[in-house]
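Office hours follow-up: a student asked to see two folded examples consecutively, so here they are.
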Amino acid sequence: MHAEQTWADLTTAARGLCVGRGFADTWVKTVTRAATVNRGTFHHHFSGRKAMFAEPRTELLQQVAALGDATAEAAGSTPDTPPPMRPAPSREPSCGGAPPTRCTVN
């Protein structure tokens, strides 16, 4: 459980720093300071800075997919079965007593 908490602390610190500073100015050193861990601990969890941001991105994509599945389920459909489509509005001619050559389509 401790390793999972450390990983969460590192990714939370990295996200916060990246939002505030941008990726270019978010370094391993600043992340480890913010997460209050040493660089060895960081490298136990990630091979480097890019790897640190790849995992949260993958996690975020998984969360978005789960949200999409939950939304589809709530709407009565699944990812394999789209929700039913509404019927198209009627396009019957409306002549209103006029000769057929002057009919309009609704």
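And the second, which I mentioned at the end of office hours:
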Amino acid sequence: MPFLSSMFIGFIFSRGHADYFFGYMRQMAEQPSDRHTPGDPVKMVKAMIDVADAENAPLRLTLGSDAYDAIHTSLSSRLAALEGQKETAYSTDFETKAE
């Protein structure tokens, strides 16, 4: 899957997309937001730069308490659904021989 991830990242941050993304972030930082979001774009950009310079950067960066809460809820639900399938998943393994 690394190849697909690299392709996706390359697509997202191709010249045109990067200009769009960073232009949007610049606009958000320069203009007061009438959107009801808790995120401060200036702090977000600083966090992105700090993570880019970090030795052990996370694979994914979550910015904003609203994003964190939404991701946490989604992943918790998915984990609960996975746990409900544990017995079935393990029951399909080959039988192990006793030694």
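Two things to take away from it. Residues 80 and 87 are 13 Å apart (CA to CA). Confidence is low (pLDDT under 50) at residues 1-10.
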